[in-house]
Specification:
The protein is mostly helical and 564 residues long. It is 60% helix and 5% strand. A hairpin with an 8-residue loop joins strand 3 and strand 4. It is a multi-pass membrane protein.
């Protein structure tokens, strides 16, 4: 019987599931630490994309709460990310290029729309179980791409730390432009930036317990208040709205939707790929299993929240997640505490944030960019695979030589080229038997193996598809030409052939006819069901002959021996 009362099942968010009161003190401490570390980047990173600093604070509040409620990880912290911001900057430049007179408010609206686009793409990818996209950009290509982005960020700080407006693009032209305008350098700004940069390096080398960006922000605020940097010509952050972000749907008429959609896709691919790498790296440390498909829900919720509260696209933050684990955070309550702390900062510390000098923020961004240049990883890639190192260099050159947005296209193209190269030239090997042993062995790897007289076996290690059929046909003809006199059967071991398409099927039919003219019969062994169905529909089974199709290679050998 029903009690007459409706009941609704409530499911605890995964990041808060199994919460224990003993975790509270650690989560509170971790939340305060995450907010302290996140504040400098929250104020500094928007400058990469030409956005006002408050958008970075908004991006560090609403997305944190959204991921805490919908994300699967207990430890991962989301927020502004340097690589994502650089791709966002390039997308904003592409979108606004065709829209005249775009002001700061319009740029914020466009960034929020891009965040909504990224969030929707995350949810669509989750709906179609496309978490595999996390591995689309390989680690070598991402390593090279991030190095290229790092150089772009470094170049972007020239104006901020010198006070000289540099409009040139690329790697060398901005430096040449700076040399031409050397007489316009504002030396107090440059000296301040160099001092703050040196402080960051000292803190990093000495492993000082207080994070370098936190020290830089606190020290630069004190110096700005004492010496009046604004009056001395050193640029400062300026007024930051004291109110909280409002829930609103961003609107901006006249946007090129195609560029907006492509930009959202580029940001999604880079931010999601980098975010999953961060999630897996820290998941390995904490023993937490990372499910890329479930992370799509968390990242999607975080980006939708960012778009609805006037922020920009976000991703997993390695620095904030590292602090969370170091302090001992146990759940997503850490994210909620950090968000509330930043809310309080926005409400009550606006005057202090206003006088932060921009050269100090430029130093933070420059140090962040240098930390992204992983020379050790490049050396390891070279040692493991020189070919992958070449593709990493291509991905690195893209953002530097052609711009960040085009660099994403270059990285994707390099990935596709790398994959196609692997698939276009599948390996093959001739097989033989070893006396008093069952089965077949590769002749080049087993010196005691011998080819069976009259019976040649070729193992093809890869799918047969339209882009490698010419190569496979050439290899089979070369193998047939080199067979000893008296060879009557050439059997293809298809156990490693996962797929065969119509082009490959036609090629097998042509090779079968050519071999028949040499009085050699072509056989196929260990075909996968899908590949066999394709060959039947294409009529290749009839050409080869049903008696030359074998379930396993041993059956082919026994049939040959029986007929001989």
């Amino acid at each position: 019987m029903h009690s007459g009362r409706w009941t609704f099942p409530l499911r605890m968010p995964a990041g808060l599931a199994g919460y224990q009161p003993a975790w509270l003190s650690r989560d509170l401490s971790a939340g305060l630490a995450v907010a302290a570390v996140g504040l400098p980047s929250a104020i500094a990173y928007p400058a990469i994309a030409g956005l006002p600093p408050q958008t970075g604070l908004y991006a560090s509040i609403a997305p944190l709460a959204a991921y805490a409620l919908f994300g699967p990880s207990k430890n991962l912290i989301v927020g502004p990310d340097a690589a994502t911001m650089t791709v966002l900057a390039a997308t904003l430049a592409a979108v606004t290029a065709s829209v005249p007179d775009v002001g700061a408010g319009e740029r914020v609206a466009i960034a929020a729309m891009l965040a909504l686009g990224v969030g929707l793409l995350c949810l669509l990818a989750w709906l179609f179980r496309l978490g595999v996209l996390a591995s689309f950009l390989s680690r070598p290509i991402l390593t090279g791409f991030f190095i290229g982005i790092s150089f772009s960020i470094l170049i972007g700080q020239i104006s901020r730390v010198t006070g000289v407006k540099v409009d040139s693009e690329g790697l060398l032209r901005p430096l040449i432009d700076l040399l031409r305008k050397a007489n316009l350098i504002h030396w107090p700004s440059l000296i301040l930036a160099l001092c703050m940069f040196a402080l960051l390096q000292i803190v990093r080398i000495t492993k000082f317990p207080v994070p370098g960006p936190v020290l830089v922000v606190v020290l630069s605020v004190l110096l700005s208040a004492v010496f009046g940097f604004e009056a001395r010509g050193i640029a400062i952050v300026g007024d930051i709205p004291a109110g909280l972000p409002h829930l609103t749907l961003p609107r901006f008429a006249g946007l090129p939707l195609q560029t907006l959609a492509l930009g959202s896709a580029a940001i999604f691919l880079v931010s999601y790929g980098a975010g999953i790498i961060t999630a897996r790296s820290f998941g390995a440390r904490s023993g937490e299993t990372v499910d890329p498909n479930r992370e799509l829900i968390g990242f999607g919720a975080a980006n939708l929240a960012a778009g609805l509260f006037g922020a920009f696209p976000v991703s997993a933050s390695d620095s904030r997640t590292a602090v969370n684990l170091a302090v001992g955070g146990r759940s997503q309550l850490t994210s909620l505490v950090a968000a509330l702390t930043l809310v309080a900062t926005l409400l009550f510390l606006g005057p202090a944030l206003r006088i932060i000098p921009l050269p100090a923020l430029g130093a933070i961004l420059a140090a962040t960019a240098l930390n992204m240049i992983d020379i050790g990883a490049m050396r390891q890639i070279w040692r493991i695979s020189p070919m992958e190192f070449v593709f990493a260099l291509i991905a690195m050159w893209g953002p530097i030589g052609l711009g960040v947005l085009n660099g994403v296209v270059i990285a994707i193209g390099a990935t596709l080229a790398y994959v196609l190269r692997k698939l276009m030239f599948p390996r093959d090997a001739m097989l033989g038997r070893i006396a008093d042993h069952e089965g077949f062995y590769k002749l080049h790897r087993s010196p005691e193996a011998r080819a069976v007289p009259g019976f040649a076996v070729c193992l093809i290690q890869g799918s047969l598809l339209f882009f490698n059929t010419d190569y496979i046909a050439t290899r089979l003809r070369a193998i047939a030409a080199g067979l000893p006199a008296g060879t009557r059967w050439l059997v293809l071991d298809a156990s490693a052939v996962a797929q065969i398409d119509s082009s490959a099927a036609e090629m097998l039919g042509e090779v079968c006819e050519e071999l028949r003219q040499r009085d050699i019969r072509l056989g196929l062994a260990d075909l996968h069901a899908e590949a066999r169905d394709m060959l039947e529909r294409a009529g290749i089974i009839d050409i080869v002959g049903a008696d030359m199709i074998f379930d396993i290679l041993e059956d082919a050998y026994q049939a040959f021996e029986a007929r001989r």
